[in-house]
Amino acid sequence: MFAKILMMAVFIAAVVAIGLKTRGSAGSVEGFVLGGRNVGPWLSAFAYGTSYFSAVIFVGYAGQFGWKYGISATWIGIGNAFVGSLLAWVVLGLRTRRMTHRLGSTTMPQFFGSRYDSEALRVASAAIIFVFLIPYTASVYNGLSRLFEMAFGIDYTVCIIGMAIVTCIYVVLGGYMATVVNDFVQGMVMLIGIIAIIAAVIINNGGFITAITSLSQIPVEGSEMQGALAGFFGPDPLNLLGVVILTSLGTWGLPQMVGKFYAIKSDEAVKQGAIISTFFAVIVAGGSYFLGGFGRLYAGQVTFNPETGAPVYDSIVPSMLSTLPNLLIGLVIVLVLSASMSTLSSLVLTSSSTLTIDLIKGRLVKDMDDKKQLLWMRGLLVAFVVLSAAIALWQYTSPVNFIAQLMGISWGALAGAFLGPFIWGLYSARVSRIAVWASFICGVGLTTANMFIGFIASPVNCGAIAMLLSLAIVPLVSAFTPAVPFELDEPLSAREV
């Protein structure tokens, strides 16, 4: 227990110290939101990766999809690495950096407003971000509850309040630079932790061959396939593909992810960041889902819902980890806390800057200079952390599942609305405002309607369909409606290069 507490104390002290050290970079709006657009490849790549992979992935998704698909769940991590990271950097990185410099955009709604010459699109996209990022932010806390209770016997409420306070301190102090420097430190913890935990779990199950053999002998409900959990594509390849699409392609349209390309300092840094980010994702995402694939070997320790008989997915990974040595459990706690805080800081910074710059400035508050904008952003940042913590606490103690459902569709709704307009806006001069509106309506409408009506059985598949529709709708509608005049290839300034 002393070792666990010491590791936690050192980690929290380091996080706060980084916030104090970087506060000088947060003296302007561009500095607070984007680090002055001067962030190097290592910090940018780790910031991208740690924002991508939170406790939701490590505890929730790895446990859920590892239970459903076995070792084949590793394909989700591979998709995250090569589609969600490498391809995203290659396709979006340079174009996003150059065009946002040229347009002077610091947020995704600003990009839509400038690119499509529409204040209405800017306001609508800001509202979508606000509505769907807040519940997603709340979901970040959920991966901590069982792990902290297992390791320290600490109540979930204390965990949430403590994490919220620490995150508030360092982001309010240092803004984007505090976030990315902390992301680098937290990313290193995640890399070391994942490798150590996988090794320990495999050793606990008699080694790799023995563990795979044991897994192959477990039958899967509704499948006649023998050894499905140890198979190459698992018991349900089609739904597995839906998860790969949602969790990999979805990052291309998420404002907190795309924002990392706004801030990177040079074209060369983008190329380097693509390689670093992919390596990080292979280890962290691939490792998390690979680890989750062994979840059924711990069926005797997993909590099951007494009414449905289904496993409580958030209990699977904590059950696997409870058998580890105490020192490794302490490392796991720091790992999950790192993953959660890095994602939380990115989300609340995105929410507060978007609301301030795109909704409040010039509308609710007419005269807003840099100093006032920074004050508003810091105040809203604290408000969003408090709000997301309150939602997480309410959801934890309430039988109402609406918030949990809203959390589940956040990725699908955001990426389903923004993916097509963002990518086509970067690469095509033939995009209309009506096409962008159609994508917004389709992405939000489809995922929200499905939450209430349930015409697509899996919300994951619904989100994946929304994204693919967004990519198709924008060029299709633009072919029959007037495009917004825009010159894609204007000469670049020295700063943009």
What's the short story on this structure?
The chain is mostly helical and 497 residues long. The protein has helices at residues 2-21, 29-34, 41-52, 55-69, 74-103, 108-115, 119-142, 145-152, 156-204, 208-216, 237-249, 255-263, 267-292, 316-321, 326-360, 370-397, 402-427, 433-453, 459-478.
How many alpha or pi helices? 19
Question: How far apart lie the N and C ends?
Answer: 51 Å
Q: What proportion of the residues is helical, as a percent range?
A: over 70%
Enter the CATH topology name. Sodium/glucose cotransporter
Shape annotation: globular
Helix and strand run: HHHHHHHHHHHHHHHHHHH
Q: Assign the CATH class.
A: Mainly Alpha
**Runs with pLDDT <50, length 5+?**
491-497
Q: Whole-number radius of gyration? A: 22 Å
Q: Name the CATH homologous superfamily.
A: Sodium/glucose cotransporter
The helix-and-strand class reads mainly alpha
Number of strands: 0
Strand content of the residues, in percent? under 5%
> How much is the average pLDDT?
85
Named CATH architecture: Up-down Bundle
Task: Indicate how many domains the architecture comprises.
Answer: 1
Main β-sheet, in a few words?
none
